[in-house]
């Protein structure tokens, strides 16, 4: 019936209930906006007709089209908002640099939003904890020790730690590294935390 | 327990919908049996769907019905869907645990709460049945979600309505979190499940 394209956008997001970001459905969005324009124009002309010729029986149709407009608006707003929630989750799960295949799914405005969110988060973190700031994206689980044992799950190249030593992260190699350096890589699935 | 970063807008409680909630939008897409009480002239491309003469019975989605419904002026009149009528209400009052709520419409509680907007004379009974059904079924849902660890719960879950499914899922995630804490896995850093899912999807994208 009406507003079918809009509900399809919602279904697309609802299917990925784990929070993944699907590709930006530019086509679908454009179709919904076109439908809204057509409905709006028809309503404008009907309202003029109803006013000038006193045709009160047009009012139910005007009301119906208005409902469709509101529905389309709701679906589009919810679609865009839910995508922003998913993009925000990316900053916390992936870190500041997103892999290319994820960036590809975002439209230009969403990329801009992401970089501004990064900046807001960074300036907030800098304002905490005195001079140095506090990285709140670290220590998502209560830390038990300063150094942890990690195993490399895939080749990641060279990795420099604070005292200058360079470690070569080759698949299946095991290392004893400071926790704060590894947390990012573990979350990204490059390293594996080994608990004995 | 994996820390979650994606927090979608939850569905509204009771008769209120949350504007941005995906669940509420899908819920309001469900169709209701209604009867038109007036004509809808000049609908143009929508004309094929709305009948010419008033008094015709048809089905409209909830969002449209809510928008068109007016207490004073008769535009549409809403009939109760089968599941909320007297017949089914007696079944629910007798034993709510045997009913397959997913088949009765995946949004039984949600749609039922929304039906209360339409001023049916049976509203108090509908509201009462919804509440009692939920109370009676809740015990079993909570019990299973807290005690089924590493088991196949699909046979039980497929008879639950969406609200109950959400409750079951959060119960299970709590149980899994507690169990992993007991095993000492709570301090083990893990890869983000989101990241792993993206990687899985990338591989399937590449395959033709």
TrEMBL record, chain A:
Pfam families found in the cross-reference section: PSF1_C (PF24997), Sld5 (PF05916)
Gene3D superfamilies the record matches: 1.20.58.1030
SUPFAM superfamilies from the UniProt entry: GINS helical bundle-like (SSF158573)
Compartments, as annotated in UniProt: Chromosome; Nucleus
InterPro entries noted in UniProt: GINS_A, GINS_bundle-like_dom_sf, GINS_Psf1, PSF1_C
Cellular component, GO annotation: GINS complex
Residue span, GINS subunit domain: 53-128
All copies of domain DNA replication complex GINS protein PSF1 C-terminal, residue ranges: 144-195
Biological processes annotated in GO: DNA strand elongation involved in mitotic DNA replication
CDD domains named in the record: GINS_A_psf1, GINS_B_Psf1
Key words of the record: Chromosome, DNA replication, Nucleus
Domain of life: Eukaryota
Function summary: Required for correct functioning of the GINS complex, a complex that plays an essential role in the initiation of DNA replication, and progression of DNA replication forks. GINS complex seems to bind preferentially to single-stranded DNA.
Family listed: Belongs to the GINS1/PSF1 family.
Oligomer status and interactors: Component of the GINS complex.
Name of the protein: DNA replication complex GINS protein PSF1
Organism: Pundamilia nyererei
The organism's taxonomic lineage, starting at the top: Eukaryota, Metazoa, Chordata, Craniata, Vertebrata
Protein's gene: gins1
From TrEMBL, chain B:
GO biological process, one term: mitotic DNA replication initiation
Matches recorded under Gene3D superfamilies: 1.20.58.2050
Chain ranges of the DNA replication complex GINS protein PSF3 N-terminal domain: 21-69
GO CC term, one of those recorded: GINS complex
InterPro entries xrefs: GINS_A, GINS_bundle-like_dom_sf, GINS_Psf3, GINS_Psf3_sf, PSF3_N
Stored SUPFAM superfamilies: GINS helical bundle-like (SSF158573), PriA/YqbF domain (SSF160059)
Localisation per UniProt entry: Nucleus
Keyword DNA damage: no
UniProtKB keywords: DNA replication, Nucleus
Function in brief: Required for correct functioning of the GINS complex, a complex that plays an essential role in the initiation of DNA replication, and progression of DNA replication forks. GINS complex is a core component of CDC45-MCM-GINS (CMG) helicase, the molecular machine that unwinds template DNA during replication, and around which the replisome is built. The GINS complex plays an essential role in the initiation of DNA replication.
Oligomer and partners: Component of the GINS complex.
Protein name: DNA replication complex GINS protein PSF3
Species for this entry: Haplochromis burtoni
């Amino acid at each position: 019936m009406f507003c079918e394209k809009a509900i399809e956008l919602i279904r697309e997001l609802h299917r990925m209930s784990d929070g993944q970001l699907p590709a930006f459905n530019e086509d679908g969005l454009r179709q919904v906006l076109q439908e809204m324009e057509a409905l709006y124009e028809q309503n404008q002309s009907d309202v003029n007709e109803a006013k000038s010729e006193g045709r009160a029986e047009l009012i139910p149709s005007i009301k119906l089209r208005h409902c469709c407009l509101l529905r389309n608006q709701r679906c589009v707003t919810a679609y865009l908002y839910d995508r922003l929630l998913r993009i925000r989750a990316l900053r916390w799960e992936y870190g500041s640099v997103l892999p290319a295949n994820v960036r590809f799914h975002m439209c230009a405005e969403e990329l801009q939003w992401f970089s501004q969110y990064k900046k807001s988060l960074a300036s907030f973190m800098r304002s905490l904890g005195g001079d140095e700031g506090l990285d709140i994206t670290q220590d998502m689980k209560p830390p038990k020790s300063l150094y942890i044992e990690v195993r490399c799950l895939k080749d990641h190249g060279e990795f420099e730690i604070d005292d200058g030593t360079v470690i070569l992260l080759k698949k299946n190699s095991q290392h004893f590294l400071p926790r704060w350096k590894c947390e990012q890589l573990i979350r990204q699935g490059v390293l594996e935390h080994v608990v004995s | 327990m994996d820390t979650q970063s994606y927090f979608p807008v939850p569905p509204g409680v009771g008769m209120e919908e949350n504007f941005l909630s995906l669940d509420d939008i899908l819920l309001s897409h469900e169709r209701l049996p209604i009867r038109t009480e007036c004509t809808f002239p000049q609908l143009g491309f929508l004309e094929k769907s709305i009948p010419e003469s008033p008094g015709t019975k048809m089905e409209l989605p909830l969002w449209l019905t809510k928008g068109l419904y007016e207490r004073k002026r008769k535009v549409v009149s809403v009939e109760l869907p089968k599941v909320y009528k007297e017949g089914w209400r007696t079944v629910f009052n007798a034993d709510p645990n045997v009913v397959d709520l997913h088949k009765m419409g995946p949004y039984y509680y949600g749609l039922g709460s929304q039906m209360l907007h339409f001023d049916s004379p049976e509203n108090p009974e509908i509201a009462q049945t919804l509440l009692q059904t939920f109370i009676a079924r809740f015990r079993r849902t909570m019990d299973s979600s807290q005690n089924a660890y590493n088991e196949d719960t699909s046979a039980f879950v497929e008879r639950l309505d969406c609200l109950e499914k959400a409750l079951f899922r959060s119960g299970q995630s709590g149980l899994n979190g507690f169990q992993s804490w007991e095993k000492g896995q709570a301090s083990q850093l893990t890869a983000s499940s989101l990241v792993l899912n993206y990687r899985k999807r990338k591989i399937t994208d590449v395959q033709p």
